Amino acid sequence: QKEVEQNSGPLSVPEGAIASLNCTYSDRGSQSFFWYRQYSGKSPELIMSIYSNGDKEDGRFTAQLNKASQYVSLLIRDSQPSDSATYLCAVKDSSASKIIFGSGTRLSIRP
Amino acid sequence: GAGVSQSPSNKVTEKGKDVELRCDPISGHTALYWYRQSLGQGLEFLIYFQGNSAPDKSGLPSDRFSAERTGGSVSTLTIQRTQQEDSAVYLCASGEWTGDSQPQHFGDGTRLSIL
Fold it and tell me: Given a cut of 70, is residue B1 above it in pLDDT?
């Protein structure tokens, strides 16, 4: 059973600080990785995708990928209260055309 | 354009009844997923349809659950003889492969409550 692991949190970060969210995955052959944000009572929405080792930046968000360590992370700079949500890591199964989600990390930005 | 549409948005029913949940994906999307999300929990994969391939049913929790996708478009998730533990939000997502990428677009979900 291929797995995507995340710390459930809650992760509490002061406003303006950097929030760091981590994800590990078991499928060594995976090549595609995604971060979704889910506000309470809402559906998940895609915020970042990453395919190559290293960093990918989009505004205040940076995704980091290390395939050798089977580790992907999301950094949120200058955290805002509106960033408070659950962040879901998702990984493409290398042997099946399927996306596998982690259980999510709940992030709380305190003013 | 229209997003993923799910109906009903809320469903309350008595234990033992059958329910049908509908998902209308984004036009042209070949991939369609069903997930279940209990309160405060992560996404639980149920079933995956990809084009004309046989569906991946590996996430269905019991034989009371079934799903079909007609004409490669609309999908219906059926739960027979509902139990209280079936109470959850049922989310549908559709997507399209671009190389190795398949961003998923989620519907607003159906909140199912079993009395």
Answer: no
Pairwise CA distance, residues B54 & B57, whole Å: 9
Specify the pLDDT at position B77: 98
DSSP string, B24-86: E--TT--EEEEEEE-TT---EEEEEEETTSPPB-TT--STTEEEEEGGGS-EEEEE-S--GGG
Residue B22 burial by Cβ neighbours in a 10 Å radius (0-12, 13-18, 19+): middle
A43·B109 Cβ contact <8 A = yes
CB contact under 8 A, A103 and B56: no
Phi first, then psi, for residue A54 (nearest 5°) are 115, -155
Q: Is it the case that residue B73 has pLDDT exceeding 80?
A: yes
Give the pLDDT confidence of B58-68 residue by residue, as tens digits. 999 999 999 99
pLDDT(A69) > 90: yes
Facing residues of B79 across strands? Answer: B19, B65
* Substitution target from B100, B108, B111 for chain A, most A beta carbons within 10 A: B100
Dihedral sign for Cα atoms in the order B104, B107, B110, B111:
positive
**Cα–Cα distance for residue pair A89/A75, rounded to 1 Å:** 13
